[in-house]
Target: Cysteine dioxygenase
Amino acid sequence: MMSVRRTCESRQMSRADIDTVFRNHGESGVMDVEKSTKEHAWMEKLISEVQDVFKNDHINTEDLKYVLQNYKSNPCDWKKYANFDAHKYTRNLVDIGNGKYNMMILCWGPGMSSSIHDHTNSHCFVKILDGSLCETRFAWPETEGKDAPLQKLGETLCNTDDVTYMSDEIGLHRMENPSHSDGCVSLHIYIPAYDNCQVFDERTGRHTKAVVTFYTKFGRKVDYRHSRQGILPPPDAENVNRSQYSPY
Model:
């Protein structure tokens, strides 16, 4: 299992280094990816260890939690998948786990948040890779068809390398980047994968169905213009619309 924090280019990146990487990740909002298998070896190792947890029909969630806790985040490992957008948080697919789960990296600009949502009977693990997320949990609406504010159960601030768990049995939640100056990057595993969920109005408790999509899959931008499922370009194709953006 992984337990030692690595260095990037023979040294550990400082917070200032990370900020510089994110500030200068290119005109597209997608960081430049160096074609180096060495940089991403630890990410591949993490993916492999997660896959090992799912080899058997019975899944021990404590084993998965241990793997995630034991991985010490380094931007060199996951920068291939850390793709920001100026107007929304992004969901970047990393691994589909032979249909048993989805692993993805979410990128949150300053102040960005999700809607209050459920998880369609899936189990959700979140590990913070850089920055912080505030998780606010809510109880399920008590009466269907009657407007009433959602009951807030509590808030938790999750920082780099923290791991948290959520399921529909616990309730609903909202994730938010509390910083007004820094971005946040988080790793999410959903068991099983899902392509839609319910989003809730905090004031009324009313809910609507929402389809979830990916900003990138396996490091490549997804094109939804002609397909609801999204189309990926060839691996070596350049498919990014260039526009100046910095999440900071």
About this structure: The helical segments are 15-23, 41-53, 61-70, 75-78. Confidence is low (pLDDT under 50) at residues 1-36, 238-248.
